[in-house]
Amino acid sequence: MNFWASWCVPCRDEFPLFEQQLKTLGPSDGLQVLGVLYKDDASSAERFIADQGAGWPSVQDPDGSIAKAYRTVAPPQTYFIDKDGILRGIQIGQVLPEDFAAQYAKIKP
Predict the structure, then answer these.
(1) 3-state secondary structure at position 24
(2) Is 12 exposed, middle or buried (0-12, 13-18, 19+ CB in 10 A)?
(3) Given this model, what pLDDT does residue 87 score?
């Protein structure tokens, strides 16, 4: 689960990594990404998703309740949750390839 915003520069940088990992690991391991829009408006988010070619769902969080539940402080912030729904890792800040590998190892089926 990735908290992101269209105004977040590191978010723009990490979206291609998520797309690549979904193409690589999604079919074999069942990897899924869910985006949560953080303090942003829907029209900006829609343009951002289109520009980035993001192939995963994103939900709006207009009242900030999802961010509050996950104690998100700022985007990007990514939660690595296993197939049983157990939170196994949190990445505060941009996910780099080496970060993804380390975090994904915690949830890999």
Answers:
(1) helix
(2) middle
(3) 96
What domains appear along the chain, each with residue ranges and CATH number?
2-107 (3.40.30.10)
Cis peptide bond prior to 76, omega within 30° of 0: yes
Reduced to 3 states (helix: H, G, I; strand: E, B; else coil), residue 18 is helix
Of the CA atoms within 13 Å of residue 15, those in its CB half-sphere come to 24
Structure tokens at 61: 């969080």
Q: Does the structure show a pLDDT above 90 at 22?
A: yes
Instruction: Write out the two tokens for 10.
Output: 């590191």
The whole-model pTM stands at 0.93
What strand order describes the sheet that includes 87-92? 58-59, 35-37, 2-4, 77-81, 87-92
